[in-house]
What does this fold into?
Amino acid sequence: SAVISQKPSRDICQRGTSLTIQCQVDSQVTMMFWYRQQPGQSLTLIATANQGSEATYESGFVIDKFPISRPNLTFSTLTVSNMSPEDSSIYLCSVDRDRNTEAFFGQGTRLTVV
Amino acid sequence: AQTVTQSQPEMSVQEAETVTLSCTYDTSESNYYLFWYKQPPSRQMILVIRQEAYKQQNATENRFSVNFQKAAKSFSLKISDSQLGDTAMYFCAFRNDQGGKLIFGQGTELSVKP
It folds into this structure.
């Protein structure tokens, strides 16, 4: 298994500001993923965080809005920039140990933008 | 592109009874992985069970079992002897055999009633 620490667990932010979410894993992993879960909805992948290179974004998500860092194999950050109420969601970090295992998730960050 | 469909937004079951959650998916790949995740109100995504597409035998984990019909692209979850702690949102998910992102269904909210 993998132990993932995600911070903050929740936050209430003013529109127009930015929030950075941290994801720390207890061991090195190749792939880290950031998902968004809008209220009452399923999980949608924002991007794959690659160590040593730029993140790979899914359709509908852009780097200017969701910049991601991956400085090493155990840590990543997701920033939600210039927030609006529509960004109110749960953001989850996820990792794979290898392609033959399940994905492990952090506890999620509940973001409310007012 | 792969898609995952859960056609039951909500279900309820009496404690100690059995319930089956449905999931269908669409893919052109022959090798892949299927998962059921549970998300209680705590937001933590918890793996319930996984199935490798190349295995004909249905996966089981204690009270949880799947009915995997590869030709029909169906992957249902059966929960036996339901317990109050099974109350949660359940997500069906697909991943190809290269690893990487999970594609989630819309979720089924399960309520176990005493």
